[in-house]
Design goal:
The complex is a heterodimer of chains A (114) and B (116). Chain A is mostly beta strands and 114 residues long. Chain A is built from no helices and eleven strands. Chain A starts with a strand and ends with a strand. Chain B is mainly β and 116 residues long. In chain B, strands 2, 5, 6, 10, 11 and 12 form a six-stranded mixed beta sheet that branches. The chains are: A mainly beta (114), B mainly beta (116).
């Protein structure tokens, strides 16, 4: 079955540690996205990538980093510089970066920093 | 820049009653409009989208939405809800002329709570 896989589903980390969230898709989509979801705030765009080896900052990129070395993979690293990293993180992909194309979402990773 | 407003954070409704979830957007350019549904601890699933053409859009699970350009609204409706419709619903927009950029701007979500 085609889809987007995020792992792990739940992640606990100590404050000050970097952590990497995995996102893999087998839909052959060019564009991939990372969103952060907080209660009452909807989804906010962290980073997006329209093609391999290229990515752009979204609205809340500070304290995060990404890479896009393969079409299928778009990992997100939450660094120690992110002041409030506890949140639900959602990865998405779309067939292209063209406006209006449907975004398909993974099941999310809930990150808790203690 | 675009923005999306979902004024109702929670909408309680009885099973088999009709429901409307409100969405208003602000944009200086033409936009594409979307409604997504999120079940607890899961990702988002597309319900429907408006790209162009007929302003009444039908989606999955019996939902529909109407694009009203003069009122900059895209309200979601269902004539008769089921318990299984209990979920959070997100309205989103993307810039129609943003080039190769399919960035979605989301509203804060509306929790639809269907009661028996």
């Amino acid at each position: 079955d085609g889809g987007i896989t995020q792992s792990p589903k739940y992640l606990f980390r100590k404050e000050g540690q970097n952590v990497t969230l995995s996102c893999e898709q087998n839909l052959n989509h060019d564009a991939m996205y990372w969103y952060r979801q907080d209660p009452g705030q909807g989804l906010r765009l962290i980073y997006y990538s329209q093609i391999v080896n290229d990515f752009q900052k979204g609205d809340i990129a500070e304290g995060y980093s990404v890479s896009r070395e393969k079409k299928e993979s778009f990992p997100l690293t939450v660094t120690s510089a992110q002041k409030n990293p506890t949140a639900f993180y959602l990865c998405a992909s779309s067939i292209s970066g063209q406006g209006g194309t449907e975004a398909f979402f993974g099941q999310g990773t809930r990150l808790t920093v203690v | 820049a675009q923005s999306v407003t979902q004024l109702d954070s929670q909408v309680p409704v009885f099973e088999e009653a009709p429901v409307e979830l409100r969405c208003n957007y602000s944009s200086s350019v033409s936009v594409y409009l979307f409604w997504y549904v999120q079940y607890p601890n899961q990702g988002l699933q597309l319900l429907l989208k408006y790209l162009s053409g007929s302003t009444l859009v039908k989606g999955i699970n019996g939902f529909e939405a109407e694009f009203n350009k003069s009122q900059t609204s895209f309200h979601l409706r269902k004539p008769s809800v089921h318990i299984s419709d209990t979920a959070e619903y997100f309205c989103a927009v993307s810039d129609k002329y943003g080039g190769a950029t399919n960035k979605l701007i989301f509203g804060t979500g509306t929790l639809l709570a269907v009661q028996p």
